[in-house]
Each structure stands twice: as structure tokens, then as C-alpha cells.
Fold:
Amino acid sequence: LGKALSAEYLSNWVLAILAGLGAGFALKTLNAIKEQARISRIGLRAARIATSAATAGASAAKRSAELAERALHLTERADLLIDGINCSTPYQLNADTVFTLMFKNFGRTRASEVTQLFTLGVPGAQPVEPPEKTPTIVGAGDGLQLPLARLGDCINIGTYSAILKGTVPLKFEGEIHYRDVFGFNHRTACSGTYTPKTFTFSVDRNEAD
Structure:
């Protein structure tokens, strides 16, 4: 016992105890570092998830804004369509007959730089275009009259009876072009065939883009 309590043995015991304590502290420190690393990894994953969610949210917001803008353009744009057709010589056809296309802007905003190109004629003949008109503006709910070519400039006298009998079709076709308030260009494609029973045209096509 005296030998075990000698200075040499006591110092060994002290070193052993200190070594044990040091190992214990080292183990605790290592565990703390591992825990901190685990927490850091969780935080990094959470940050990545948050970043991904933010990116997805930004993309969704952008898509929603684009859809809203498209909806605005569709609902507020100008929209020119044929609203009727007038004849200068009701219930008859002659060389001086002029048909007028009556357009209306059914949109909520004005149409500007309105131009048109329409032809009138029968199969086999050279269609005749009306005189060019200066580009104009058509406000929301307003109308625009577009006279076609004079009938005598399109067909010969012998064709009138065939048109009235319905054996030769008299047709018009063409397009009207315009720009809306958002700066986008549009067109309306139209065509029609003369109906002898009603002495006017039936509209075969009246389509805006």
C-alpha cells in the first residue's frame, strides 16, 4: 500500500485520471461537433428547400402576371367585324349598284391605322378592288363603312341575269387590318356570297384573329 501511494505511483494515477477526463471531454467535444454538423446539414437542406420554394413562387407569380396581361389584351382589345351590308339599289342590280360593308368595333378600346383590301367579282373574271382609303381610327362601339367596287366595273350586262338566277355566284372577300391600344396588329378576314332571294350578301366568313 505504501508503494502504491508513493509519489511515482500517485503521479501515474493522476496522469491516468487526467487522461480519462481528457478523453471524456474529447468525446463530448466530438459528439458536439457531430451534432453541430448534423444541425448545419439540416439548416442547409432547409435553405435549399426555401430557395426552391421561392424560385417556384417567383415562376408562378410570373406566369400569373403573364396570364393576367393576356386576359387584359383579349378583353380590352379592339375587335372589328362585319355588322351588316347595305345595297345602294335595294331589290335590284344594275351597273350603278354599290354594296357597302358595315363594320363595327365590338371591342372596348379603339382600333387605329385601320386599312382594308376587298375584292368583288364572279368566278373567271378579274376581281375589282375598291379605291384605297386613308388609314383611319374606329373608336369602341363605333362603325366604319367600306364601299365595294361599283358593280358595273366588276361584271358585264349579260352576267346580271345569271347572278339573279343563282347560277353564277357574286362574291366579295378580303381583310381589314388595324392596331389596338396595346400596339398589337390584328386582322379580320371576311367573305360573302350574293343571295338573290334576299337581294343582299350572306356572310360566309367574318373572323378576327
Residues 7-76 form the longest helix (70 residues). The chain has two helices and eight strands. The beta strands are 80-87, 99-105, 111-121, 136-138, 143-147, 171-179, 185-195, 200-208. The mean pLDDT is 82.
